[in-house]
Each structure stands twice: as structure tokens, then as C-alpha cells.
Amino acid sequence: MHVLIVGGGVVGLACAHALAGRGAEVTVCEAGTLGGGSTGRAAGGIRTQFSTRVNVELSLASVPVWESFADDFGVDIDYRRSGYLFLARTEETAAAFRENVAMQTEAGAPSRVLSPAEAAEYLPELRTESFVAATFSAADGVADPHSAVQGYADAVRAAGVDIRTKTPVTDLARVGDGGSDDGSADTAAAAATASDTGGWRAETPDGPLAGVDLPIAPRRRQIAVVEPEGDLPADAPLTIDLDTGAYFRPEREGTAIVGGHFADSDPDVDPDRFDESMDVEWAVEATERADDAAAYFGPETRIRNGWAGLYAVTPDHHAILDEAEPGLVVAAGFSGHGFQHAPATGEAVADLCLGEDACEVDVSALSLDRFESGETLRERNVA
Ligand SMILES: Cc1cc2nc3c(=O)[nH]c(=O)nc-3n(C[C@H](O)[C@H](O)[C@H](O)COP(=O)(O)OP(=O)(O)OC[C@H]3O[C@@H](n4cnc5c(N)ncnc54)[C@H](O)[C@@H]3O)c2cc1C
């Protein structure tokens, strides 16, 4: 079996890793550089606190890979298991938190509902008077996406995967039923992927990739790196003020990452021509909102630098993980959680490509046809 993977972000590389590990011949075509897309712009957050079972399970299946990554891949990804703290300002949000935690704990995540006072034990300067409840999971944390790409790339190269950078795939043509002819792939995979019921060959030029219409919008999201006025503990959790959309976490050497999406701050953009720099006005607002949640980001906070990247957003904020056409597997549209879900996604994609059943997560809820059938999902913990 020869699988062509389109895209060398963390998802494509995790797919290559899983497929090569199961004996497939794999080629990765990356238009630019490995990890140069959304992956290199991510905040590195890893959490089990989602509101749908499939997202929680993708996390639970991925966390062990991040935990043992340094040993298994030989690259330190700066994995820090300092938890995620979600904050609720309203009773409505708190009620949703309670439902989420019931589902998360049933799935096996160690999440807990906390009072604001209990939450302050994890984040001492939390403005407890502004909140009615919080949730915390000690299974959550952060890691460095750049290092993860490096680890995956090293491992798949060692496993014989053919990685071609600066190689855009501009079309995929089906070349027959059940096999490759002239070195073309049996299957194509991962910004898009594919399997062996039909062959697919990357071709140039023109036309939508394989003619498959994916309901994914490229949405610009920003991150600021700041020097907080206050002493944000290095082991503070990634904190999300869900009712305002603001989030922050400690970064290295006393700095912090601040992010969030506010009204009009995250428009759909042309993915080939969007502003990759940070808007200072946005950064000021994001920092003020962070300070509104916890008193670390007062007026002496210095905005050091930042960047913008793309969330690949589907209508229900869940990925598409499906064999969209015979031989064409899609793993795309991960919104703000594709980094953390990459390890389990790789296994799910390998199953779809190879017709196996090894992945512990049932990803059928992430089928492409849910948007037509109306069986879409609802993720309430969107950050
Ligand atoms: C600001 C920001 C913060 C984020 N924070 C988090 C977070 O905390 N936690 C988390 O889990 N996720 C986070 N994300 C989301 C995460 O970055 C993505 O979901 C994840 O990186 C998706 O990985 P990918 O491999 O699918 O996509 P990408 O990294 O975008 O990789 C796709 C690759 O495909 C290549 N490509 C596209 N078309 C072609 C073609 N035709 N031929 C060849 N190559 C092609 C691109 O060049 C690109 O390198 C964040 C994203 C942003 C923007």
C-alpha cells in the first residue's frame, strides 16, 4: 500500500508516522516547509476538557503520546502537564461545565468542577468575584508544536517515508480501481488522505483538490507574547475565560502567551494572502481581558511580540475525519485543536487508509456527510 499525504503539518506527519508504523509506503508532499502552516502558529495547548465525547476521546488517546514523546521520538517537546482552567461568569456557562465534566469523567478524564475559591488555588491572582464556577483537569497541559514536528519528521524519515517539501499538490486524479500504475499512490491522505479502493495520483495544474468540497473556513487567529506585570507562576494552568473568549498561559522565562477571539477579531481570510503579524490593538484588548480574569496583566505589562495564524474551521468546530471518496481520506478542519489531536488522528487515518480497526477512538461522528444529514456536533468549549 502506497499512501500519498498532502500536507506536512503535525496532522500529516502523525498520519505518516502511524501509516509507516503499520508497514505502508508513504510519501508526504508539503507545499512549503514542514510545520510552516497552522501548526507553527499554535499555542501548544493539550486538553481533555471538551464538550463532545469524540473530542475528549481523541485527547485521551493522544495524551500518552505527548507524555512519552521525548523517550519515544528523542525530541524534548517541553511538555508541561500544568492543567487547563476553564472559568464561567454565568450560571448558564456553569451548568454547561457541570454537564461537560460528567461526560469527561465518564470518558476517563480527571476533570473537576471547582468553586472560584478552589480555582484560585491553581491561579492565586484569579479575580474570584467575577466568576461563579470553574473546571480543572490535571491531564491537560502544553507542549511545543515546533519540536513535535521535528520529532515526527525525524521518526518518519527514519522509517523510510519520502518527504518532499516545496512540493504543492494542485490536483489529485483517480488512476484506477485498486492499485497504482506508474509510482502513483494507491491512496491519498491528510491535510487530505486516501486509501486503496481506488488509486490517486497528484497532478498539476488546476482544479479543486480531488474535486472534494470541504466546508472549512480559514479564520485568522492571533497570539501575543507578553511580559506580565504580575508574577504569573511558571506552573499556572492554561486559563480560558470562556464567556469573554480570553485565554493565557505562562511561556518561558517569565513571559506569557495571551490569546482569544473577540468580536470582529477573527475574520475569514484568504489563506494564501493574510496578515501573519499581530495587531497591536488586538493585543492590548487581549491583555486587558486577561487582566480582567486574573490580576497579572496590569498596565505595566509589556507586549513583546506576536503572530497570526489560521484556524481551519468547520460549521460545527469539529474536524472532518473520513474517507470522503473511495481512496481519498480527509483529516482536516481541526479548528483550534488539531495539534493536540494529531497522534490519535494519525491512527484513525491509518485505519481508514488500510481498512483496519486499531484506533481506540470511534471517529464516525466526524464524517463529512454530517453537514448534509444535519447530524452535526456542538462543541461548547470553543477557544
Ligand atoms: C493562533 C493559533 C493557536 C492555536 N492553538 C492551538 C492549541 O493550543 N492547541 C491545538 O491543539 N491546536 C491549536 N491550534 C490549531 C492547530 O494549529 C491546527 O489545528 C493544527 O496545526 C492543524 O494541523 P494540520 O497539519 O492539519 O495543518 P497545518 O499545520 O496547517 O498543515 C497543513 C499543511 O498542508 C500544506 N498544504 C496545504 N495545501 C497543500 C497542497 N495542495 N499541497 C501540499 N501541501 C499543502 C500547508 O503548507 C501546511 O503546511 C492553533 C492554531 C492557531 C492559528
UniProtKB/TrEMBL annotation:
| Start and end residues of each stretch annotated as Disordered | 172-213
**GO function term, MF aspect, one:** oxidoreductase activity
Q: Give start and end of each FAD dependent oxidoreductase domain.
A: 3-352
Oxidoreductase listed as a keyword: yes
What is the source species? Answer: Haloferax massiliensis
Transmembrane regions listed in the UniProt entry: none
**InterPro entries, per the entry:** FAD-dep_OxRdtase (IPR006076), FAD/NAD-bd_sf (IPR036188)
Q: Record's Gene3D superfamilies?
A: D-Amino Acid Oxidase, subunit A, domain 2, FAD/NAD(P)-binding domain
Keyword set for this entry?
Oxidoreductase
Compositionally biased region (Low complexity): 185-199
What positions belong to coiled-coil segments? none
Any one cellular component term from GO for this entry? cytoplasm
Q: What is this protein called?
A: Monomeric sarcosine oxidase
- Supply the gene name: soxA_1
